[in-house]
Design goal:
The chain is of the alpha+beta class. It is 12% helix and 20% strand. It contains five helices and nine strands. The strands form two sheets. Strands 1, 2, 5, 8 and 9 form a five-stranded mixed sheet that branches.
Length: 293
């Protein structure tokens, strides 16, 4: 049986005791490229993703970001993102297992962390987390500059496996780093991760953690984080996934916490963090969220 994590997501005050300032406003306008992107909120071709570097850090991989793992094309989702812009993503706790150097290990300094597909470990292990496929797309927008796309910003995302356990921290997973990765936003402010549907553990509504950085080169620099937040998954999708083989512990834990009683999403019912989800267990799910910072 999966048991609650001892310090699971104790709130922003808990993080502030170990972290420096986790938010600052962009000081430079995105220029003509931004204006062009705003004018072109129609379907088109997106920018590139990123590949692992052999130099040993996420920052060093930025120069290779256009070689593989293409980001999704600009779609009506981008247009909708601009229309909905204006409310910044709520600031949330990193939780006790970020592996960003603020609480134990720092996966952001590891070669290979910049990747679209985060299902497997990288480095000394290639173990893959099993579960129902999930594709997550975030659209990053700069609220201070007219909701322009945050092209070139970077996101570090991480979440638990289908048993509610976190790589690098939970017993037996100390040498695994799966379900963690960094991606760079394309010209439309979009980026995508291929992962599995997270499990549910006692005390929390199913979720995905993420940090937004000003740029790929700043992912290992303290004080360069624009936002720390979490993605909430929909009840309908959770019920479907947790009824499948392999998610037995999640099926038991899921009914114990509601979205409104969750200690992270409960303050506003998660309305600004609840992803739009479609798909099926057989074909996999897609989740999308607009992230205004």
């Amino acid at each position: 049986m999966t048991t609650p994590h001892p310090d699971h997501d104790r709130g922003l005050e808990f993080d502030l005791s170990t972290l420096l300032n986790r938010r600052r406003t962009l000081g430079v306008l995105l220029g003509a490229g931004t204006a062009a992107a705003l004018a072109a909120c129609t379907p088109g071709t997106g920018g590139g993703g990123a590949t692992p570097s052999s130099t040993g850090s996420a920052a060093a991989t930025a120069s290779q970001s256009s070689t593989t793992a293409a980001s999704p094309s600009a779609t009506s989702t981008v247009t909708r993102a601009f229309a909905e812009c204006g409310v910044e993503i709520p600031e949330e706790t990193l939780g006790p297992y970020p592996a960003d150097g603020s609480n134990g290990p720092n996966v952001l300094e590891a070669s290979g962390v910049v990747r679209r597909d985060i299902r497997s470990s990288f480095g000394t292990s290639t173990t893959a987390a099993e579960g129902v496929p999930l594709t997550v797309t975030l659209t990053l927008l700069d609220n201070a500059n007219g909701c322009s796309p945050l092209a070139g910003a970077a996101v570090y995302a991480w979440h638990c496996d289908r048993d509610g356990k976190y790589s690098l921290y939970d017993s037996g997973l100390e040498n695994e780093n799966y379900l963690r990765g960094v991606q760079e936003a394309d010209a439309n402010g979009q980026l995508t991760f291929s992962t599995i549907f997270p499990g549910a553990y006692n005390g929390r509504w199913p979720h995905i953690h993420f940090e937004v950085f000003e740029s790929m080169s700043n992912t290992t620099t303290a004080g360069q984080v624009l936002a720390v937040s979490q993605i909430a998954l929909t009840e309908a999708a959770c019920k479907e996934v947790y009824a499948t083989d392999g998610y037995e512990s999640s099926a038991r834990n899921f009914p114990n916490t509601t979205l409104t009683s969750d200690n992270v999403f409960g303050d506003d019912g998660g309305i600004y963090q609840l992803a739009t989800i479609s798909g099926s267990v057989a074909g996999g799910y897609t989740a999308a969220l607009n992230v205004t910072v």
